Amino acid sequence: MEKIDILSLSLDELTSEICVMGEKKFRAKQIFDWLHIKKIKDFSQMSNISAQFRDELSKKFCLNQLIIKKRLVSRIDNTVKYLYELRDGGAVESVLMEYNHGNSLCVSTQVGCKMGCSFCASTIAGWVRNLEPSEILGQIYESERDSGRPVDSIVLMGIGEPLDNFENVVKFLQILSESGFSLRRVSLSTCGVVDKIRELAKLRLGVTLSVSLHAASDEKRSAIMPINRRFDLKTLMEACDDYFDQTGRRISFEYSLIEGVNDDDESADELITLLGGKNCHINLIPINEVKEREFRKSRSILRFQKRLNAAGLNATVRRTLGADINAACGQLRRDDLLNS
Ligand code: SAH
User: Fold this and answer.
1) Interval between CA 225 and ligand 1 midpoint (Å)
2) pLDDT (tens digit, 9 = 90+) per residue, 186-234?
3) For residue range 304-316, what is the model confidence (pLDDT) as tens digits?
């Protein structure tokens, strides 16, 4: 019989499993703390659990671990980029970044991606599978162990579309919250899967929603983001307003500037029309050039920002971290696939 992935169990689920084994409820809480607060790697480290019960645990459950396949450390600002190997040989990336307010970790939610955004390296070889909650948590735990730096905030902005792995991502958030990590310190980035944005809003988890916009007219957005052909801008904006109304959380819009595609005055004005008057933040990102794609970094980022600011929009340019290891998201895994 296949062992149960213990790190993917919520506290309630773990409690039921432990009670079925004839143990008291408080044992489940002790085990949960070992797994998600002390973040141990082996059942043998659970020192307040009897050796006999630890043995039973290791027969019934497995402790899913990620292996660091590659680690790139920036000499400029301590940014660390990890390529993690999963138990089936797949690989995902995480990036640990240092800000004034603490360490932020960008985690992946899928192996590959189905969304097909034309500038993104994660989607080139398609989608392989969804990550389990334990594999999303594992990226946090392993990067903390390896770097010795506690993670203070998390962004679901690595490989994959979090809302295309809705169930596992919500379970991940539940376990994270049960471990005492405030979900107000989590941001979830989506290309705009509207039906799932609405489902997420209903859960009122307190996570910040980041929406990858990258263009403010349906014509331009559909040309670079296929999801826009399924859910157009009007539908997306209605879902964003609903998210704000239900959660009170201000939405953050990401806009990666691509030379000659979405960085001219007309595009800025479309953005002003779309977002003017909304309580939101716009994150302008210099596009990371992807080897396999023609897109080039915009040379008019500051001009674009000024135009938005002059119209009263709250737009900032994302600081570039780890410029010396600045492979685009998904490029590390992609290079690894090509070389193996
Ligand atoms: N699928 C989710 C989260 C992963 S992508 C989403 O689309 O939001 C994280 C962010 O990086 C998104 O805003 C995405 O559009 C952006 N991105 C992807 N490739 C990029 C590139 N080459 N340069 C800059 N941003 C990129």
Assistant:
1) 11
2) 999 999 999 999 999 999 999 999 999 999 999 999 999 999 999 999 9
3) 999 999 999 999 9
Active-site option among 93, 132, 161, 289: 93
* Nearest CA, atom 13, ligand 1: 212
Question: Could you give the CA distance from residue 40 to residue 34 in angstroms, rounded to a whole number?
Answer: 6
- Contact assessment for residue 82 and residue 333, using Cβ atoms and an 8 Å cutoff: no
In three-state secondary structure terms, 168 is helix
Q: What is the pLDDT of residue 333?
A: 87
Q: What is the pLDDT of residue 320?
A: 80
Which among 113, 120, 191, 329 is annotated as catalytic?
329
Write out residues in the chain with pLDDT < 50, as ranges: none
240 is catalytic: no
Tell me: the pLDDT tens digits for 259-274?
999 999 999 999 999 9
329 carries an active-site annotation: yes
273 CB-contact burial (10 Å; exposed 0-12 / middle 13-18 / buried 19+): exposed
Ligand 1 is surrounded, with C-beta below 6 A, by 115, 117, 119-120, 157, 161, 189-191, 212, 254, 256, 285, 287-288, 290, 328-329
Side chain identity at residue 77, one-letter code: D
User: Maximum Cα–Cα distance for the chain, whole Å?
Assistant: 69
What is the Å distance from ligand 1's center to 152 Cα? Answer: 22
